[in-house]
Amino acid sequence: MKLSGIAGICAAGLSLGLLASCSDDGFRSDGDGSTGSGTTGSGTTGSGGSSASGVGGATTASSGPTASGVGGAASGSGGATGAGGGSGGEGAICPSDPNLVAVALQTDGWIGCDPEVATDNPAGLQGAFYAYGDGTSCTPPANPCTGAGCCISGATIVGDPGTYWGCGLGFELNASGGDASVKQAYSGGLQCFDIALSGSSGGNEVRIAYTQAASTTGLVAPYVEIAPVAGSWSGTVCFADVACPAWAMAGQCAADAQYDLQIQIVGGDAAGAFDLCLSSLVPMGDLGGLTDLGQFCGIVGEPSEHTLAGAYRIQNNIFAAGTGTQCITAKAGGGAAGLSVDSGTLSGGDAPVAYPSIVYGWHYGEWTTGSTLPKVVSTIVNAPSAVQFTVGSGRYNAAYDLWVHPQANPATPAGGLEIMIWLNHGDVQPLGTQAGSVMLEGATWNVWQGSGPGGWGYVAYVINGQTSWTGDLRPFVVDAVNRDGAANDTWNLLSIQFGFEIWNSSPGFAVTSFTAAVN
Fold first, then answer.
1. Would you name the residues annotated as active-site residues?
2. pTM beyond 0.90, yes or no
3. pLDDT attached to residue 10
4. What's the CATH fold of domain 37-284?
5. Backbone phi, then psi, for 487, in 5-degree steps?
């Protein structure tokens, strides 16, 4: 995650829990909208320093044109006033502090000291902090980095999310500085930021993104979402952790380059006064620790049911509503994902009532960004995966759930093949009947075979007592396809999931770390 501010105006909104896309430094919201218009951000530049781009303007804030809203399939929203760039250049002070916010408080929001000298750029970073807004929810400060940190304040309102999408802050990762500052993709060794936020987001969700281009007009920035901030929040967000939303159209979103780090307070859905500060921003390498992304308590079909993080979807996945409640905390970081079941009163009969899980790839017509799926089974070289987990009590399994289908993007799994790999279970057994055993990946697995309740084939591989597993999933896919009477190796591997099928939920279930890939 991140925070910062000192330049820019955002020309597109954020709504319904979805990011917006802006013409230099913003996001994009979902929905139907018309083209909007707004005023250009303005800013000052130090000698040799950065004139930070006005978000929504194609050129720098100090001389940018009128911002235009992004219209069309995703919501259009008007340009909004933003604040301008920080200073740098010869003679500027060069504070040495791992916390970039502490540096920004001494340099009017500019990181990198002299733009002409690369050796003074911490972790290869050079650019300005900036603030931006929708023109109603806040007045972006000329320099958000004062006092307690880099801050943004205002109040979201309920209204057209294409117009009243909220406010945000950003930090340029690689800007040239000078009177005609040019943004470029970051090319240093940094992989993550360690971040601390303080204050309140006014009950609104917060989204953090790495923008994919110098000008993001018509584009959607990949992001990760955290729950509303009240008091403080800290965590680490890596380049690998952000993901494109499922509603982004083809060609709108990519996570293969990083230009700016951004944070946005979501407006349009609820009214709430916010005053949020970034108190610490520390560049980090590729970290294995997971960051808390917030709690999710919804059932299938509700916005509060899941979140996206890099190539993963982390979901509560309650599919038997009315039997109780369940809340999970989603986690991600360093290219991995995790979750914990915080509370649960779900209960059922002979069938599971939830599968809190992490998805790599497909889930009922929706896809995570960054996976290499779908992939035809015959073309798969390997599918490495690793998982660590703890289990609670009651009736459950801790299992992989893989989906294979003749179609590359079916709306449902009907007509396909479900492949489960049970690593641990309590007082339950798979569907169907036992069909012998097989040696795969150095272990002997009991095999069960039957038919799924939604009209798909079913093969399960069962051992027990495990709390971790590392191996190649390809042998399981090949064996299951050969066992199933309908499937063959021209079918597509759609999804790799891991989680807990729960008959009676309770705390104690947690995925400490999960990774998957398909080559």
1. 418, 501
2. no
3. 33
4. Jelly Rolls (2.60.120)
5. -75, 160
